[in-house]
Amino acid sequence: DKPAMPAVDEQKSDKDLSVGGGGRRALASRQTCELAAADLIADYRSAHGSVSPLLFWHEGQLRAFSGQYTQAIALFKQSYKPRQQDFGWNAYADATIAFLRGDRLALDAALVEMKATPAPPGETLKEGKLEMTLPDGTKTTMPWPLNVEVVEGLQRCLGKPYREAYGPACRREE
């Protein structure tokens, strides 16, 4: 229901994976529908005047998965965060852009920058894992910096399509 999609709440559209549930992720999960999902995000941004870095990023990813690298790069550049909110995000975006351009030196430099990212204030690093307290009070751990395994996969599979390089096979060390 394309006309109804821009009215769906951004969080619901991002998290709702059910078929017909209104979520763009459900649509994007079908390989042949990724560009339609990217267009829905663009329509949503336009309808709401949204400059959400996350929406630029997700639209860019869908376009990159579909081989639209030039458009994806332009969108990824709009996902940069202010310095006080960065925590490695901008280096992740730089690495992804470098991958799409086939620029090994820039990709390597972005990974070095990512790995130098300190933990957010009040959070603890243990053995390369960030121990975080979520807003609901639960504790979780995740690799730090965030998305480092993605960038290492992009590094391993430079020259392959983004769809493949972003996937789990490239994230595993041979």
Can you characterise this structure?
The structure is a single chain. By secondary structure, this protein is mostly helical. The chain is 55% helix and 7% strand. It is built from eleven helices and three strands. The chain has helices at residues 10-15, 24-28, 34-48, 53-65, 69-77, 83-86, 89-101, 104-115, 148-156, 162-166, 168-171; strands at 124-126, 129-133, 139-143. The chain has a three-stranded antiparallel sheet, with no helix packed on it. The longest helix has 15 residues, at 34-48. The termini are far apart. The model is unreliable at 16-21 (pLDDT under 50).
List the helices and strands and how they pair.
Elements: H1 10-15, H2 24-28, H3 34-48, H4 53-65, H5 69-77, H6 83-86, H7 89-101, H8 104-115, E1 124-126, E2 129-133, E3 139-143, H9 148-156, H10 162-166, H11 168-171
Antiparallel strand pairs: 1-2, 2-3
Helix pairs in contact: 3-4, 4-5, 5-7, 7-8, 7-9, 8-9
**Number of separate helices:** 11
Please state how the strands of the largest beta sheet are arranged side by side. Answer: 1-2-3
Shape: globular
SSE order: HHHHHHHHEEEHHH
pLDDT averaged residue by residue: 85
Query: Structural class, please?
Result: mainly alpha
Distance between the termini: 44 Å
- What is the beta-strand fraction? 5-15%
Low-confidence stretches: 16-21
Number of strands: 3
Helix content: 40-55%
CA radius of gyration is: 17 Å
Largest sheet: 3 strands, antiparallel
Provide a quick synopsis of the model.
The protein has helices spanning 10-15, 24-28, 34-48, 53-65, 69-77, 83-86, 89-101, 104-115, 148-156, 162-166, 168-171, and strands at residues 124-126, 129-133, 139-143. With 174 residues, it is mostly helical.
